[in-house]
Structures are given as structure tokens and as C-alpha cells.
Specification:
Layout: H1 3-6, H2 19-25, E1 30-33, H3 48-52, E2 60-62, E3 68-70, H4 80-84, E4 92-95
Antiparallel strand pairs: 1-4, 2-3
The chain binds iron/sulfur cluster (2 copies).
One iron/sulfur cluster binds next to helix 3.
């Protein structure tokens, strides 16, 4: 939260470092899964994106065959799921146009 202390325009504000506050107020984008590229949707179990997520079970859940489902109201758009995805191009991306109004 140091950036909130030095921001010259006041565009940033500090929030509590608690999971509930972060998921409520942080909205950098929304993770989106491309089922045509995702290994789990193609029939082999993966699920690495859920393991990389700081909020597994909240922001991203796995259904049968470890298929990822994004929970729109919980995903903060951090992109850790994108970094871990083994597919090229990645089967999960961040849509920065889909930001929650907080
Ligand atoms: S963008 Fe971040 S919070 Fe959202 S599903 Fe991916 S790892 Fe989880
Ligand atoms: S890491 Fe990529 S390929 Fe693996 S389940 Fe997640 S989106 Fe699919």
C-alpha cells in the first residue's frame, strides 16, 4: 500500500490488508478462461490456475476434470493464474475492461 502514500493525484486510496476488503475494493480486471485452449476442457486435468490464485475456492473454483470457473465478484484481476498457465497462448487471460465498480 506504499503507492497510496506517494500518489500525487490522490488516485489511489489505502484499504485494509484483509481478504474481504481486498476482494471487495481491488478490481484490476477479470480472469477469463478460453475453453478451446484450456487443458482441462480439452480432456486432461490441469487446474494450475486455481493453485496459483491467492483466493482459491473464492475467486476461482474447479469443477469436474479440474475445469476452472471464475467467480466474477471475487476475482481481483491480479493475473497470477495467467502466469502459471502452461498453454501457449495462455488459456486464461485478464480482461481489463471488465472491472467491477467499487
Ligand atoms: S486474476 Fe488473480 S484473483 Fe482472479 S482468478 Fe486469477 S489469480 Fe485468482
Ligand atoms: S492453468 Fe490454464 S490450462 Fe490449466 S486449467 Fe487453468 S486455464 Fe486451463
Amino acid at each position: 500500500m506504499r503507492c497510496t502514500e506517494v500518489c500525487p493525484t490522490g488516485a489511489l486510496r489505502s484499504i485494509p490488508k484483509e481478504k474481504s476488503a481486498i476482494m471487495r475494493f481491488v478490481s484490476m480486471g477479470l480472469a477469463v478462461v478460453d475453453e478451446a485452449l484450456c487443458i482441462s476442457f480439452l480432456g486432461r486435468m490441469c487446474g494450475l490456475c486455481r493453485d496459483a490464485c491467492p483466493y482459491p475456492g473464492d475467486a476461482i473454483k474447479l469443477t469436474s476434470w479440474a475445469r476452472p470457473i471464475i467467480v466474477e465478484q471475487r476475482c481481483v484481476g491480479c493475473g497470477l493464474c495467467v502466469e502459471i498457465c502452461p498453454q501457449q497462448p495462455t488459456a486464461i487471460r485478464i480482461d481489463t475492461t471488465e472491472r467491477r465498480v467499487v
